[in-house]
Amino acid sequence: MYLSFRTVLIPQCQQCRTEVTDDHGRPLLVDAALLNTTVRDGLRARGWTVTPGNPRVQRTPTDTVGGDTLRCPVCITGNRARTDAEQARQDADFARPRVTLLDLSARLGPGWTLGQRNGDEARHRWLVEYDGQVRGYVQRYRRTNGTFSTGWEAFYRLGISFPRREAIAAGAHRHGSSFLWSGRDLAAWGVAANPPFESDRPEWAARKKRAA
């Protein structure tokens, strides 16, 4: 949405900026960035998506921060096509044969494995799989100079994206580096279990106490 010279708002697609129009094809004028139920329902009936905003972060009704987020039908269709294409690309990539397959059922539970395809070894990357389905991947952190750290990054699969899983405090590579895990299998456990930050290490990854 943007503020007009009339000090009212004209709802628009956040992606392509197409304006919402009324029944006569004129720009729809509203007095608040949070649309009322009638306008929201009307937009949805016309094929738009409406993500309601958050009134708690708005300073005034015409403040667009926290307002509704809109997507027009054209952008929705295009986004869906791009998502489908990326999903097909990922499926083909993940279907490549594994050159190495490790059974992690003793640590993560039945059905969990780590797999590498051609090229993964050079990147220190392992796919985290459950019953043959990719649930994420782990890899050594690559520094800006091209060398690899001994710490591991963990990424879980969310649709076509792979957000990074933060390390638990007890499993961090070192103090203050919460995005790096101290070991490969521990990072894979992070992908599989999504443990709370305060969680203890699993028993098999417990640190051994040094002899006095």
Structural class: alpha+beta
The biggest sheet amounts to: 5 strands, antiparallel
- Percentage of β-strand residues: 15-25%
Task: Summarize the helix and strand pattern as letters.
Answer: EEHEEHEHEEEEH
- Counting DSSP E segments of at least 2 residues, the number of strands comes to 9
Detail the poorly predicted runs.
none
Mean pLDDT: 92
Rounded to an integer, what's the Rg over CA atoms?
A: 24 Å
Question: Level of helix content?
Answer: 10-25%
Shape: elongated
Distance between the termini: 66 Å
Instruction: Tally the helices.
Output: 4
Arrangement of strands in the largest sheet:
5-6-7-8-9
Structure, explained:
This protein is α+β, with helices and mostly antiparallel strands and 212 residues long. A five-stranded antiparallel β-sheet has the order 5-6-7-8-9. Helix content is 21%, strand content 21%. The protein contains four helices and nine strands; from the N terminus they run ββαββαβαββββα. The model has no long low-confidence stretch (mean pLDDT 92).
